[in-house]
């Protein structure tokens, strides 16, 4: 169970993120999911916690991709449509993030994501979010 102090810290952090990113609520929602995934990973290294954390990250990535591509959720969750959309982006960071996401989504589908992959997913998602911010996307 999440304590009141933890929830207050998250609320404060999210308010700061809103000011920092000045972006669509999708980015704030994504960061909230990443915070919760990180919290789950630090609780216990067991399969249920890892699966739950991976699912939160998958949702975060969906919101980030929705923000980046201006696609709706159903299109973002379709790998062929997502690949087609990413063809218009020339930036290496975008292509790398798409590759990472497609590989991570395989882990999700198979239910085989382990703590190292999940930690990497948090890192990769935040790195891409920061790149978006730097580019003003």
Number of strands: 0
**Nearest-angstrom radius of gyration?**
15 Å
Helix vs. strand class:
mainly alpha
Shape: globular
Question: Strand content of the residues, in percent?
Answer: under 5%
Number of helices: 7
Major beta sheet summary: none
Average pLDDT score: 87
Question: Helix content range of the residues, please?
Answer: over 70%
Structural overview:
The chain has helices at residues 4-21, 25-43, 47-69, 73-76, 79-86, 92-110, 115-135. The protein contains 7 helices and no strands. The longest helix has 23 residues, at 47-69. By secondary structure, the chain is mainly α.
What keyword list fits this structure?
single chain, 137 residues, mainly alpha, 7 helices, 82% helix, 0% strand, globular
Please give the structural blueprint.
Elements: H1 4-21, H2 25-43, H3 47-69, H4 73-76, H5 79-86, H6 92-110, H7 115-135
Q: Could you give a short description of this structure?
A:
The chain is an all-alpha fold and 137 residues long. Helices cover 82% and strands 0% of the residues.
């Amino acid at each position: 169970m999440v304590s009141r102090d933890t929830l207050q810290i998250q609320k404060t952090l999210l308010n700061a993120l809103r000011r920092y990113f000045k972006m669509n609520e999708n980015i704030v929602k994504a960061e909230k999911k990443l915070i919760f995934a990180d919290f789950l990973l630090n609780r216990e290294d067991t399969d249920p916690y890892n699966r739950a954390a991976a699912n939160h990250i998958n949702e975060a990535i969906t919101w980030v991709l929705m923000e980046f591509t201006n696609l709706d959720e159903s299109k973002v969750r379709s790998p062929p449509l997502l690949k087609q959309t990413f063809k218009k982006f020339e930036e290496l960071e975008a292509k790398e993030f798409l590759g990472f996401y497609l590989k991570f989504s395989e882990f999700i589908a198979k239910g085989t994501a382990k703590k190292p992959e999940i930690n990497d997913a948090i890192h990769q998602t935040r790195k891409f979010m920061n790149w978006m911010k730097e580019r003003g996307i």
